[in-house]
Design a protein that fits this description.
It contains 5 helices and 8 strands. The chain is of the alpha+beta class and about 220 residues long. It folds into 2 domains: about 60 residues, no CATH class; about 120 residues, no CATH class. The protein has a 6-stranded antiparallel β-sheet. Strands 1-2 form a two-stranded antiparallel ribbon. The chain is elongated. It starts with about 30 loop residues before the first helix and ends with a strand.
Length: about 220
């Protein structure tokens, strides 16, 4: 048997040569100030967001860092927060009531419960009202409530809600009853009071304001 092999007319395949990628340059780092600017811009830390954003843009241009888009986004968010704050202040000022030199309300508006005064007349006040602002109006106009007296609780540590409401209820019942006197439908006038909470007590709020709630809107004061 002939075992001789004839040589192939085709050249033998060459062994594959492993591919080598050229070395890649190291990627630039992301500026930490740019990240901080974005984070504070998201949560409303306007001042810090602006400061960090400006620092980030300065360092990015000088050191070739990444994060320019993050810094710009932080600055844009800070601008939006600023606009919202300005708008809120404008709205608040626009809704504040006007008072004469004697302190009497001359034009209706929304008043903080901490700025209410004896003699103020109010509207839309309910016995379960927990708002921090109420609608006040000139007493010559229709209103359904009037602040008739106020007193301060003793200083010291927080005495507990039961103590505060107990004191407020006893003294305000007497105060409203005395103010109502022989007013029309005096027996239907209810007692309401604003009192300190544990949180406001820590801010030196000790004042209880006693309020008469009328059965129907009326004009004038008790």
């Amino acid at each position: 048997m002939d075992t001789t092999r004839e040589s192939s007319p085709w050249p033998a395949p060459e062994a594959p040569v492993p591919a080598h990628r050229p070395p890649q340059p190291p990627q630039a780092k992301t500026s930490g100030f740019a990240i901080a600017s974005l984070v504070f811009g998201l949560i409303g830390g306007v001042l810090l967001s602006v400061v960090f954003g400006i620092i980030a843009l300065h360092r990015i241009s000088r050191r070739g860092l990444r994060g320019k888009g993050l810094a710009i986004a932080g600055l844009v968010l800070s601008g939006l927060w600023t606009l919202l704050i300005v708008a809120a202040v404008v709205i608040a000022l626009a809704t504040d009531p006007e008072r004469d030199p004697g302190g009497r309300v001359t034009d209706s508006g929304s008043e903080s419960v901490f700025d209410l005064r004896v003699g103020d007349c109010m509207n839309n006040l309910e016995e379960t009202d927990l708002e921090l602002a109420v609608d006040v109006a000139p007493c010559a106009e229709l209103h359904d409530a009037e602040a008739v007296s106020q007193f301060d609780l003793p200083e010291g540590g927080w005495p507990g809600m039961a103590f505060v409401t107990g004191k407020a209820e006893r003294r305000c019942l007497d105060s409203v009853g005395s103010a109502a006197g022989d007013a029309p439908r005096a027996d239907e006038i209810e007692t309401f009071y604003f009192h300190p909470t544990e949180e406001s007590w820590r801010r030196d709020d000790r004042t209880v304001l006693c309020v008469a709630l009328f059965p129907d809107p009326r004009r004038g004061q008790l």
